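Summary of Year 1 activities. Much of the first year was spent building the evaluation harness for sequence design. The harness presents a backbone, in tokenized form, and records the residue chosen at every position. We chose the following record to illustrate the format because it has been used consistently in internal testing since the harness was completed.
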């Protein structure tokens, strides 16, 4: 399906076959078992496929990243935050991969984290100091989930301390080799 048009034959089950061996198959075949019965005016058109006039396409005024599985533009897309900076470069790279690829989703998660840091830097440039404690929901977590919050803080402190210790130990060995 690489066109902008949606045709009913693209949604019609042409395979047919007996599926009665599948538990629950055809449970909706009896109209009296349909939760919308008798309000719904049954025409059984849905079995032949859906047809509609496609609404006017939303204009593409900014860069929109597209999936390799769906090369045409989706009907609706977000326009509030176009890809920019390092996070945008990572997103552009990720969108070259298949949607089923870990090489797509891990960079997108990383780009989200980097975009968060870029947003904080942007706020600071504009003279706004963000209230990270409130914006991250830490006030609510401290109030309603104190034990987990303290465990997270402890784990973060432990990981940071270990990382710093390893870094300093490595740098100490490097300095000894130089002298």
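For this record, the design step produced the sequence shown next.
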């Amino acid at each position: 399906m690489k066109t902008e048009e949606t045709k009913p034959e693209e949604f019609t089950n042409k395979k047919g076959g007996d599926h009665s061996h599948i538990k629950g198959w055809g449970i909706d075949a009896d109209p009296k078992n349909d939760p919308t019965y008798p309000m719904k005016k049954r025409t059984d058109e849905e079995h032949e496929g859906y047809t509609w006039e496609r609404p006017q396409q939303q204009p593409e005024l900014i860069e929109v990243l597209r999936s390799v599985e769906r090369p045409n533009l989706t009907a609706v897309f977000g326009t509030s935050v176009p890809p920019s900076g390092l996070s945008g470069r990572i997103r552009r790279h990720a969108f070259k991969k298949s949607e089923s690829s870990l090489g797509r989703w891990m960079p997108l998660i990383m780009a989200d984290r980097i975009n968060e840091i870029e947003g904080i830097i942007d706020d600071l440039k504009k003279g706004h100091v963000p209230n990270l404690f409130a914006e991250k929901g830490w006030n609510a977590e401290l109030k309603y989930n104190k034990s987990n919050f303290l465990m997270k803080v402890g784990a973060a402190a432990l990981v940071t301390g270990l990382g710093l210790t390893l870094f300093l130990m490595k740098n100490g060995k490097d300095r000894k080799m130089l002298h």
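The CA atoms of residues 67 and 99 lie 7 Å apart. Quantitative recovery figures across the full test set are reported in Table 2.
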